[in-house]
Write a structure and sequence with these properties.
Elements lengths: L1 H23 L5 E5 L5 E4 L3 E5 L2 E5 L2 E10 L3 H4 L4 E8 L2 E8 L1 H9 L13 E3 L9 E7 L10 H7 L3 E8 L2 E6 L3
Parallel strand pairs: 7-8
Antiparallel strand pairs: 1-4, 2-3, 3-5, 4-5, 5-9, 6-7, 6-10, 10-11
Length: 180
């Protein structure tokens, strides 16, 4: 009876360790810390941006998010082939390019790009045309200084964040920098 109990306890502990490892290695988004109760919002003529105040933890990396909303109609959004969402603080700049799948096919047809699968980091293939919403939530790397607890959120609050959106439609490029 005593041996049976040890096996059950060992099995239970082993199961607990396996579950802990699986949960620790998952790609699930986890909100780690809420720096502020209020998001930072910027509004332009064509785009709105909302810097969300949470750190998102995924696969051992930290991110923050900006939600961009197109102010035009859904029909106008359907004419856009590519969008570049850029943000910059005193700690650095990051640009994420969103390509509509139809744009990628056009690039491949003109040999401007060999494959839809060999894009470098910072390029996302996502529906722009026929999109059910006019919002895009973009993840940016969370930046913090090594020896000082100064973070990207501190840089945004104490200095500022510069947000620029560029987009291409019908071969023409457009751009808007949101006022601060």
């Amino acid at each position: 009876m005593e041996t049976h109990a040890r096996v059950s306890v060992k099995g239970f502990l082993m199961l607990g360790i396996i579950i802990a490892l699986i949960c620790g290695c998952s790609d699930q988004v986890e909100k780690e810390k809420n720096y502020e109760n209020n998001a930072i919002e910027q509004s332009g003529l064509i785009w709105d941006a909302k810097v969300k105040p949470n750190i998102i933890k995924r696969s051992g990396k930290k991110y923050f998010q900006i939600e961009y909303t197109f102010k035009g109609t859904s029909n106008e959004l359907n004419t856009i082939d590519r969008i570049s969402f850029a943000q910059g603080t005193s700690l650095g700049t990051q640009i994420i390019n969103v390509f509509d799948p139809s744009y990628v096919e056009t690039l491949s047809e003109h040999n401007d790009h060999d494959s839809i699968y060999d894009f470098p980091p910072g390029i996302v293939m996502e529906e722009i045309k026929n999109r059910p919403t006019k919002s895009f939530i973009i993840d940016y790397d969370w930046i913090e200084t090594v020896n000082d607890p100064y973070t990207v959120w501190d840089a945004i609050r104490e200095d500022r964040i510069l947000i620029t959106i560029s987009w291409e439609k019908n071969g023409e490029t457009y751009s808007e920098t949101l006022p601060q």
